[in-house]
Amino acid sequence: MSAADLPVIPGVLTRGDIARTAESIAAAQEPDGAIPWFAGGHIDPWDHVESAMALTVAGRWDVARDAYIWSAKNQRDDGSWPMQFRQGVIENHDADTNFCAYLATGILHFLSITGDSEFTAELWPAVRAGIDFVLTLQLGDHGEIHWSADDSGSSGEALLTGCSSIFHSLGCAITLAERLGDPRPEWRRARRRLGHALRDHPGAFLDKSRYSMDWYYPILGGAVRGTAARARIDRYWDQFVVPDLGIRCVSDAPWVTGAETCELVLALDAIGDTSTATTLFTDIQHLREPDGSYWTGLVFTDGKRWPEERTTWTAGAVILAADALTRTSKGNGIFRDVRRD
């Protein structure tokens, strides 16, 4: 993949800018393929995949492969991953269902861009086992999926953001199953139930409405689209959006964050509002450093970066948003072109 194939947003980011952002992610990757939040930081299986997806967009296919191989090698026998690692050591043994489903999104994205069906087949057992594990936690009355599991089994309740992401990952997993000739009709049934819960039973989920992710993730994950999605965006816009700066992570805190803003960019793009999405994408560039890395967020009441971390997954969200806005890679529609069945 050449520099000419990288996303460019005139007046905002050049191809060289995108390449530097990808390099800031690759520079943090550990020898075993793990991508921590920042050099020396911890690794979680979801943000690790998000970073690998960004590297794929940027043409860094070899390092993305290394990241996905790390995922397969660190999967447990039950199909789950520990919630947190640091330099090869497990720091949290619990399993987050959203984390465990997300490999399906990453591998479909990798296949869409690279066309590497051989590598996809190699990673398919890990994707399949992860999805099967997640669906053992579909314990709710309406199809919701509990957010985590510990040594005793199910732990906690269902989370709207996590289940919205799982809904998307299930769609990716079903597509992979079809392409690999290993259809999984039980996954389709589980996804329909989950979509029903997300659209029609908001009371099935813990109330996290102060978090912006609960606002836009049902749209980003594809469970809510059309007029319902537009109404949802409009209803909470003023609660979360800070003009010229991005969006709040939490409605009652003066803190805008890059990754959440870029995810909202992806959600807006998915419903056809590319103009507003581009404005938000432009607004968040105040978090960028000259080396292409991005600060996690800004406390806008005092102008301080917080936390004092430049995170790989924030940089990853920027690249994925730029790709979606510019329709550059063959994976640019991974969040826009969500299957409806």
TrEMBL record:
Keyword Nucleus annotated: no
Record keyword Cytoplasm present: no
InterPro entries: 6-hairpin_glycosidase_sf (IPR008928), 6hp_glycosidase-like_sf (IPR012341)
Transmembrane segments annotated in the record for this chain: none
GO BP: carbohydrate metabolic process
Gene Ontology MF terms: transferase activity
UniProt keyword terms in alphabetical order: Transferase
Protein name: Prenyltransferase
Lineage per the UniProt record: Bacteria, Bacillati, Actinomycetota, Actinomycetes, Mycobacteriales
